[in-house]
Amino acid sequence: MEDDNDQNVTDDFELAGVPDSFQRLWTPYRMAYVKGGQHQFKDQDDCPFCVAPERDDEQSLIVHRGETAYVLLNLYPYNPGHLLICPYRHVPNYDDITAQETAEMGALAQQAMRVLRQVSNAAGFNLGMNQGLAGGAGISAHLHQHVVPRWGGDGNFFPIIAQTKAISASLDEVRQQISEAWAQA
Q: What is the set of domains in the chain, with CATH numbers?
């Protein structure tokens, strides 16, 4: 018999995995990434962001080279046109860059947004920097800013259910369109 003072545990709180007002999506397959399952580049010799400017633009997916920073397509984009803005210097954190690098990265982010609106009719953007392993940086040793174009309804359950992301254009095609528009802007 249940005592009036005893309460059902589920009445006091919601169990993990039970949908709540946040509508969490549980993605346990990402635990390998969170626990360091990805190779982390430590120095300039194996850092893809240090090697990229040494190669030609097409090979490195570079769309623009600035004075202290450059812009390239993300090799693993969330959406078509997902750009990365990187300082040439191999530094891990935003507070490691100079005022000149900060200003140029900001100007490049603004230009990237203008170009992506023109080329792809982007309706919105996600801008961000993941710093350090704990901050979710895929390559934590070299600072980079993401500029991800967004459109209404561009999110779906494919990446979660089928671990698949549908990208509607090749990296080469997108790089060429953005690079040409950048030169004209």
A: 39-184 (3.30.428.10)
